[in-house]
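// run 5 | inverse folding | seed 20
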């Protein structure tokens, strides 16, 4: 399939990053969210990101303006009828994604591919809620999207080869390195990462060491660029909890049980960088 117009639903950190890389690759982008304020905030983030890249010489001021000009804001889901591919980047809740895909299924043309940026939810279950299950696929980008190289392409049990080939080729055009993943809770990256973050939280809760010393030990001892608690703050503690709950529920293994401290912090509204308070203050 020849993709020319890409719809992105959700203008938050992941959504606006996805919209930016699609526009940088030359695609027309429709960036949709429920409220004008959300869309405008996302556009502001893209403007700042593009300005920094232009300052670093990644492209000229004219190219920067052309990239930004390829992004059309939207608050009406019906606008996505013009898209050849729609990528959803909304809350990490099955019910929310299922309801959205159901609406997109009736709005979009029969040939349109529906992709989910979920970091843990079953693509097979999401595909089964639509009338086009062979054209549903996972595109798991990583934050910050304009910088991170990896994209996990998750095949639902129903995803056909043509859909996979189209999204694999598109991922390369976006400047990403795609890896093929068969549908499984947490896929590859989060199935490996989240238990480590969770264990760092248990280590903090049990008083083994301070947050700063835990992060330093992992950074220097394991040669990681970022400590696990800093990374959890960056990902969002609510997202970490959502992913761990999916892993715990779907795989039934107690090693994925979310740390009580994580649950308590999310209940308090301490979500990491995006709320100004997590394991560290921002």
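// decoded
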């Amino acid at each position: 399939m020849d993709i020319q117009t890409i719809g992105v639903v959700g203008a938050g950190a992941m959504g606006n990053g996805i919209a930016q890389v699609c526009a940088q690759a030359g695609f027309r982008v429709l960036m949709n969210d429920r409220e004008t304020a959300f869309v405008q905030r996302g556009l502001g983030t893209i403007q700042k990101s593009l300005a920094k890249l232009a300052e670093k010489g990644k492209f000229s001021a004219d190219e920067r303006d052309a990239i930004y000009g390829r992004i059309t804001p939207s608050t009406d889901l019906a606008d996505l009828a013009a898209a050849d591919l729609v990528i959803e980047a909304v809350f990490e809740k099955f019910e929310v994604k299922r309801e959205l895909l159901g609406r997109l299924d009736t709005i979009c043309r029969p040939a349109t591919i529906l992709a989910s940026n979920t970091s843990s939810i079953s693509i097979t279950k999401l595909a089964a809620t639509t009338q086009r299950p062979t054209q549903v696929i996972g595109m798991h980008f990583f934050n910050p999207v304009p910088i991170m190289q990896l994209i996990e392409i998750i095949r639902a049990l129903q995803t056909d080869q043509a859909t996979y080939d189209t999204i694999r080729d598109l991922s390369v055009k976006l400047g990403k390195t795609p890896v093929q993943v068969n549908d499984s809770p947490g896929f590859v990256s989060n199935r490996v990462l989240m238990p480590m973050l969770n264990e760092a939280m248990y280590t903090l809760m049990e008083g083994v060491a301070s947050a700063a010393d835990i992060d330093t030990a992992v950074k220097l001892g394991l040669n990681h660029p970022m400590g696990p608690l800093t990374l959890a703050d960056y990902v969002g503690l609510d997202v970490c909890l959502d992913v761990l709950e999916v892993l715990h529920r779907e795989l039934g293994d107690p090693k994925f049980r979310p740390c009580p401290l994580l649950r308590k912090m999310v209940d308090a509204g301490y979500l990491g960088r995006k709320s100004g308070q997590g394991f560290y203050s921002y």
